[in-house]
Write a structure and sequence with these properties.
Elements (H helix, E strand, L loop, with lengths): L2 E5 L2 H9 L10 H6 L4 E9 L8 E9 L6 E5 L12 H14 L2 E6 L4 E6 H9 L13 E2 L1 H12 L3 E2 L15 E6 L5 H7 L2 H13 L2 E5 L4 H15 L6 H14 L4 E8 L2 E11 L2 E9 L8 H15 L4 E6 L11 H8 L4 E5 L3 E4 L2 H13 L1
Parallel strand pairs: 4-5, 13-14
Antiparallel strand pairs: 1-2, 2-3, 3-4, 5-16, 6-7, 6-15, 8-16, 9-14, 9-15, 10-11, 11-12, 12-13
């Protein structure tokens, strides 16, 4: 049966997302409001003889080229379609045709398809192994056989996988490797037992020291931001401006009052750590974290993560997602400490299929890649 595609309202888009167990927060209509420097469009897939309700949706972000009415079209961690359909072209061809008509010269998307998983023990062993240099080269403890079929279908349709770039192992755009704690079917005591010894000790130490983790609101974002800029300087990344987080809070909570949460860890009247948490259906993400270098001995970061994990579990989440990790296992990598911290939760490293490009105008696509690589 032929599928057609057309723009849909926010209400149609959200209703479809709500009908599924979850979808990436980057595929919500509100995310288009967050990314104000892109043009956003909600698209729906419809069966010709269907009941008029979409059978798939996608948030497309369009970035115009200067002085040209040509666009890079980006679907971060999407679209939300049947990725395992043997006739994947039936889904992707109308998308490409629509984006061509909108002036797109290149399409980038991130299929939400898991390829491999590594247990916490496997990652810990890989970190300790001097012969292991990248996670991608370490034998996985779990494989998703259908992922290879999806990748092969995409290649046959002309899509090309974006290779993880840079010494840190992150792909351009959204991370290909993430760390997740499964919660479905587990009691909170099970989750706590899954923490490594150091994590359990640090959670108790924070409690004994009097660290109090509380939920904040919009007015607490400047306190979060002060810690975030300190973290950016310490960890050597370029911070986003405060208005970005204010816009994020306003857009996401307008869509759902509990979509975004802010947590702050207090000790002796000072905020030592802060973090944001996002929820879509049964999937919860730790999205941004920040902390000061002062009083680290009271372990505010462990305290705040344990509170967020506990709240996610109480809310019925199936998975708590700590987002991106490096796949580089070298001691010289400054992100290895963050990987060790996440491994301590007892979860699992997860590899997605990564991001895929389809050049519609090869000259403009090549020029864009050259510009991005030089930046």
């Amino acid at each position: 049966m032929t599928l057609r595609i057309r723009p849909v309202s926010r209400e149609e888009h959200l209703a479809f997302i709500a009908s599924r167990p979850s979808a990436s927060h980057l595929q919500l209509p509100s995310w288009g409001d967050v990314k104000s420097d892109w043009q956003a469009e909600s698209l729906g897939w419809f069966e010709e003889d269907g009941d008029g309700r979409p059978v798939g949706v996608g948030l497309v972000l369009l970035r115009p080229l200067p002085k040209l009415k040509r666009y890079l079209a980006y679907l971060p961690e999407g679209p939300v379609i049947d990725w395992y359909a043997p006739d994947l072209d039936r889904w992707l061809r109308p998308l490409v045709d629509h984006l061509k008509s909108r002036g797109a010269f290149s399409v980038k998307m991130g299929p939400p398809v898991v390829a491999r998983r590594w247990s916490a023990d496997a990652v810990k062993a890989a970190i300790a192994d001097p012969g292991a240099h990248r996670l991608r080269d370490v034998p996985a403890t779990g494989h998703e056989p259908r992922a290879a079929e999806v990748a092969e279908r995409l290649r046959r349709l002309g899509w090309r996988q974006t290779e993880p770039g840079g010494s840190e192992g992150f792909a351009a755009g959204q991370p290909r490797y993430v760390f997740q704690v499964p919660l479905e079917g587990r009691t909170l005591e099970d989750v706590q037992r899954g923490l490594n010894q150091q994590w359990r000790r640090n959670v108790k130490k924070a409690e004994k020291a009097g660290v109090k983790v509380v939920r904040g609101d919009y007015d607490d974002l400047p306190a979060f931001y002060a810690l975030y800029t300190e973290t950016a300087e310490r960890d050597r990344f370029l911070p986003r401006p405060l208005p970005y987080f204010q816009r994020m809070w306003t857009a996401l909570t307008a869509e759902d009052p509990d979509r975004m949460r802010l947590y702050l860890a207090h000790h002796d009247g000072e905020v030592l750590a802060a973090a944001t948490m996002l929820t879509v259906g049964t999937h919860v993400w730790y999205s941004y974290g920040a902390s000061t270098g002062r009083r680290r001995e009271v372990q505010p970061n462990n305290a705040i993560q344990w509170r967020m994990l506990s709240d996610a579990h109480e809310g019925g989440a199936a998975v708590y997602d700590l987002r991106g990790i490096t796949d580089t296992l070298e001691d010289s990598n400054h992100l290895l400490g963050l990987l060790r911290f996440k491994v301590g939760t007892g979860g699992q490293a997860v590899e997605y299929l990564g991001e895929w490009d389809l050049p519609l105008n090869r000259l403009l696509h090549k020029a864009l890649n050259l510009y991005v690589s030089r930046r």
